[in-house]
Write a structure and sequence with these properties.
Elements lengths: L18 H9 L3 H14 L2 H14 L18 E4 L5 E4 L19 H26 L2 H10 L2
Antiparallel strand pairs: 1-2
Helix pairs in contact: 1-2, 2-3
Length: 150
């Protein structure tokens, strides 16, 4: 059983832009082999075509998630967080932003990855909600409420 991978460029492992490193990871080949194939194709077969293809891949492919310099586009999403032990409020975090690609050349996550991320966030928020419900139904909450009303 093989898992479908997405093609990214990996600037952390790459020498110029990480295109060869991304291709090597995608196809499961050794990085040095992909570099030799690209350089050989450049000199032996179609130099201008390989050069233009490399530059196009540099601009079209997204950086590998988690690599240095990879940016997540901004989309606001609220989450409930506890602050200073007194109440709850909405707050946005960088990790709570999801942008789904609609076209292959756009930045963002593929739909399958975005769906998995959203499922994880819902699970995390459900745990938080259970903690809030536990606190609100506890005698500690009632006591704090009565004291604050004095």
């Amino acid at each position: 059983m093989t898992l479908k991978k997405d093609l990214y460029r990996d600037p952390d492992k790459g020498k110029i832009a990480g295109v060869c490193a991304g291709l090597a990871e995608y196809f499961g080949w050794e990085l040095w082999l992909v570099r030799i194939l690209v350089v050989s194709a450049f000199f032996l077969f179609a130099g201008p075509f390989i050069f233009v293809s490399y530059i196009a891949a540099w601009f079209i492919l997204d950086k590998k998630p988690g690599s240095k310099g990879s940016k997540t586009p901004f989309v606001a999403h609220s989450s409930v967080t506890k602050t200073r032990g007194k109440g709850w409020h909405n707050q946005t975090d960088d990790e709570d932003k999801v942008v789904v690609k609609s076209k292959i050349w756009q930045a963002g996550e593929p739909p399958k990855q975005a769906f998995q991320d959203i499922q994880q966030r819902f699970a995390k928020n459900e745990i938080r909600l259970r903690q809030v419900e536990t606190y609100v139904t506890s005698s500690e909450f009632q006591l704090n409420r009565e004291i604050s009303q004095l």
